[in-house]
Design brief:
With about 280 residues, the chain is of the alpha/beta class. The chain has eleven helices and ten strands. The strands form two sheets. The protein has a seven-stranded mixed beta sheet, covered by helices on one side. It has a three-stranded antiparallel beta sheet with strand order 3-5-4. Helix 6 (about 85-100) crosses helix 7 (about 120-135). The radius of gyration is 20 Å and the shape is globular. S-adenosylmethionine binds near residues 70, 77, 203 and 223.
């Protein structure tokens, strides 16, 4: 296979990716695209990039390959309790405000763009901890991503032990099981927490979000960063349609809604309420 994605093929693909998905594709992304495409081209058994690109633009490719392309051009980096101020805010401000002690409720949280599951499981740990002092609440966390590969890892809930190094020991003991095989150095989320988190494939570019609930809180963090402002506004509007009145939206720390026309009230940087 030729080692390089030629100018014509890069231009064709990047124009499509920006035009259809609103994902920014500067020339800087060419090397990344080339190396990730190489794996995909091999996987599908094509001899070179051009054959793959012809397939991509065919009717079958448009139906079956588009979700893989979003997976190829976005990054899955994540962590347990990433941007921990959000989890602290939930535990100490948001949950006590929404569900003070003695109030019954069944909370629904959504991690949109959940990658390999660390974010929804972190949310579930905070909710489970809050529930100890507030046993009248119950909760469910819904995790969605465009990438079937990430969703598979999320569902399996096995993680390398070094990924949980920063989690407080009492949470580790409560919510992670050591793998039977100590050579492997893997841990797994306990079944009681796994059953509180459900995963499903959802592409945020799609016109409708057929989620089974409307949500008290939506986390959509470090996902919008790949998209241009127009697409960001469209996605957040659709997210808002799935948030309850007086529910919350959390964005990633480098994401902002400044200049976008959205029905959201600013609570503090990256935390918004739907009035
Ligand atoms: C950098 S990760 C962020 C994960 C997590 N939210 C966090 O902050 O740690 C971005 C995730 O967004 C997903 N993503 C990108 N575009 C998407 C789309 N159109 N629909 C659904 N998920 C998308 C990617 O597959 C990736 O898993």
């Amino acid at each position: 296979m030729p080692a390089k994605l030629n100018n014509k093929d890069f231009a064709r693909l990047s124009e499509f990716i920006t035009g259809e998905f609103g994902i920014k594709m500067p020339d800087l992304k060419r090397i990344m695209l080339q190396s990730r495409l190489q794996k995909r081209v091999k996987e599908l058994g094509y001899k070179n990039f051009s054959d793959y690109i012809d397939y991509f633009f065919s009717k079958k490719g448009m139906e079956e390959e588009v979700m893989h392309m979003i997976d190829i051009v976005s990054t899955n980096k994540t962590d347990f309790f990433r941007e921990n101020e959000h989890f602290e805010y939930m535990m100490h401000t948001l949950l006590p405000d929404l569900y003070p002690n003695g109030k019954k409720g069944n909370l629904k949280f959504w991690s949109a763009g959940c990658s390999s599951g660390e974010e929804p499981y972190s949310l579930a740990m905070v909710l489970a901890e809050y529930r100890i002092g507030n046993p009248l609440i119950d909760f469910l966390v819904y995790g969605t991503d465009v990438s079937p590969r990430m969703l598979k890892t999320a569902n399996q809930a096995f993680y390398k032990e070094d990924r949980i190094g920063n989690i407080p020991p009492e949470l580790k003991t409560k919510y992670f099981l050591q793998s039977g095989n100590r050579e492997e150095k893997k841990v797994r989320i306990v079944p009681e927490l796994r059953e509180k988190v459900i995963f499903s494939r959802l592409n945020l570019i799609d016109e409708f979000y057929p989620t089974p609930f409307v949500f008290d809180v939506v986390f959509c963090r470090n996902v919008l960063i790949y998209y241009d402002r127009g697409m960001q506004e469209k996605i957040i509007l659709k997210l808002c349609s799935r948030i309850k009145n007086e529910g919350y939206l959390f964005l990633g720390h480098s994401e902002s809604i400044a200049g976008l026309n959205l029905p959201l009230k600013h609570i503090q940087p990256t935390i918004f309420m739907k009035p």
